[in-house]
Amino acid sequence: MMKMKGMYLSCLILVFLPLLVFGTGHVYIVTMEGEPVVSYSGGVEGFSATSMDLAEDMDITSESVTSYTLHLQKKHDALLDSLFEVGTYKKLYSYHHLINGFSIHTSPEQAEVLSRAPGVKYMEKDMKVKKLTTHTPQFLGLPTGVWPTGGGFDRAGEDIVIGFVDSGIFPKHPSFSTHNSEPYGPLPRYRGRCEIDPDTKRDFCNGKIIGAQHFAKAAIAAGAFNPTIDFASPMDGDGHGTHTASIAAGNNGIPVRLHGHEFGRASGMAPRARVAVYKVLYRLFGGYVSDVVAAIDQAVRDGVDILNLSVGPNSPPSTTKTTFLNPFDAALLSAVKAGVFVAQAGGNGGPFPKTLVSFSPWITTVAAAVDDRRYKNHITLGNGKMLSGLGLSPSTHGNRSYNLVSANDAMLDPSVLKFNPLDCQRPELLNRNMVEGKIILCGYSFNFVSGTASIKKVSETAKSLGAAGFIVAVENSYPGTKFDPVPVSTPGILITDVSKSKVLIDYYNCSTKRDWTGRPTSFQAAASIADGLAPVLHNSAPQVAVFSSRGPDVKDFSFQDADVLKPDILAPGSLIWAAWTPNGTDEANYCGEGFAMVSGTSMAAPHIAGIAALIKQKHPQWSPAAIKSALMTTATTLDHGGKPLQAQQYSETEIMTLLPATPFDFGSGAVDPKASLNPGLILDASYEDYISFLCSVPDVDPHEILNITGTACNSTRGKPSDLNSPSITVSHLEGTQTVKRRVTNVAETETFVITTRMSPEVALEASPSAMTVLAGGSREISVSLTVRSVTGRYSFGEILMKGNRGHKVRITVAAMGYP
């Protein structure tokens, strides 16, 4: 321990000494040509150890290692001495073990000279070290597995336009700033316009934001629109639209700061993509389909490449015989016809089946996952018991224990019940003299569930009363309530488990002395709140979030099952840090903040939209169906620990539990961005294929298809499962049914071995068992499904195609057998 302390002090000296000497300089990290010690294979000054020798049995004190280390160090010093006068720079470290290079504190002018010096491979300004980045780009492998192949994060999504049909945008947010980026040139093929902000008289665009319009005619006609509250412009008064846009296309490396703490750096999936805003959602009432359809239409006309929809209907449409035929889905079908890829949030009706609000096969429906980052905290009571909860806050001062005082005992006037003082929303109702220096114990009222109460207000109350911290205890079960950690500056925690809240309250009551009237005379209960700012990482990720809507998909208002797998894919959607608008009202805990950590399939969809932009950048000629296929056939059904994906569910007692996930939870699986850029084979589909699908839906009215899509059905009728989609679903399987799939090779000529796996109730066979697909060529696969036993539930399986060049293509299968 003493040794570590000494090392820490040395680091402090190294960091601060140059600043004292040189004032306004910066620290730079320089990588040099030449191998570091671990990969060196000999050839300098008699040093001849091989890289394997060093990696497996390295003695850093050996003469050979020491010799090579000194050689590298001398080269670093010689380079600097040749460039700069002694005393004008400070070399902080020589790196020689894992990288060959050094860090230097110097002026920007000298750094520029150094960057061009012979032997310098790479140089960058040093960044502050943080506990964790925020976080899904790293979780999905983008910085190392995807962005470098496209020229780095500063080229990821270059010239791809993502349209956001949402609640607008806060244009001044650093996630959309152009101050520290390469200039955005004109993009003539995008034809959108930028509205002028009626307050600032400036337009909303800056090159990064390439279009900004709002749509409210239906809302105005309905009498729901209030221009003083809802902003008659693309300005985001809610927060939702700013959040989703930054997830997909926000700038890279934006510090997420709240309450004096930095929670990492935020980045979009495609940081260089352009943002086109189509505002249709408003603060108080949501939005109207008419406005949404107008926005979608405008976006397609303007020339967006990708469309993100974190919006959807409240329930399946009742005016048509099938969910696939309504103005909303028809508009999206036209968008796909125009070559626009559409990602849509699946809905937040989980964990119950048939709760999806995104139905059609031409849309990519996204389910929400919990990633590997979990914010948990605990309190330690004076009797030694530890109680866990949610608390994204610092610890109590000095990790000390402080006496507890209940808000119930600190009321100034118990007779005034207009407001509930127990939820600690109004400090003027509580006695400061009793609360100051103590931890205040608050109750979780129904006002938190459906009113305006927030953990942020509890924190502000505690701070204004001089409390050492706060505890909010949930004493009653609120079925379906989703508890999320909230970042606050005051030490605090939310105890969500009712049984643990009872332990806490019993301890408090037993330890508090009272007079004969019941008034407290002394507070003996004590507790300390631990530091909850650092997340805990879990390998059991991703998991399907409990709120994420589940399949099966439905084909009509009577909730009959469709022969379409929904959702399509799983992406992070729980506790997602991203940009926020300071005047946003969507989350009470983030009013006035520039960032928010929000959950929902609304957050999952822009992850897919951003990754689709990266695919479109690499493969500009691919159709929306090809992009969807690349995402789905390369998705994984395993978590980061190598185990099958699990889904959060509620037990009979409303306790959160985990169950094995199925394709009705996650679709084809969790998105794998790196694999999706190089899928090997794709299953493509055209607009005509989607019309044929519509015409094959049982009981569909061909005239309705003609009326809504403008395209007539031909005389031949197949089955919905004949659509060349990257999944197979048969909701009513009788005897044996054969379906075909056509795959196209988008890589080099490759030979694939085809295997199948299926639950025993249904036999699954695919032929041929092996095939060679030429580069650019296509082959057909015949798939037969046969009922073996009738169980009344779905069976799941997959068709796996393994290529001799390393590609793995997986088609998910779901079927329910009938006698």
Automatic annotation (TrEMBL):
InterPro entries: Peptidase_S8/S53_dom, Peptidase_S8/S53_dom_sf, Peptidase_S8_Asp-AS, Peptidase_S8_Ser-AS, Peptidase_S8_subtilisin-rel, Peptidases_S8_3, S8pro/Inhibitor_I9, S8pro/Inhibitor_I9_sf. One of its GO terms (molecular function) is serine-type endopeptidase activity. Transmembrane segments: none annotated. GO terms for cellular component: extracellular region. Residues 722-814 form the Subtilisin-like protease fibronectin type-III domain. Keywords: Glycoprotein, Hydrolase, Protease, Serine protease, Signal. GO terms for biological process: proteolysis. It is found in: Secreted. It comes from the Eukaryota. PROSITE patterns: SUBTILASE (PS51892), SUBTILASE_ASP (PS00136), SUBTILASE_SER (PS00138). Residues 1-23 form the signal peptide. It holds the Pfam family Inhibitor_I9. Residues 27-130 form the Inhibitor I9 domain. Gene3D superfamilies: 2.60.40.2310, 3.50.30.30, Peptidase S8 propeptide/proteinase inhibitor I9 (3.30.70.80), Peptidase S8/S53 domain (3.40.50.200). The active site is at D166, H240, S602. The keyword Cell division does not apply. Residues 157-640 form the Peptidase S8/S53 domain. Belongs to the peptidase S8 family. This is Subtilisin-like protease SBT2.5. It comes from Iris pallida (Sweet iris).
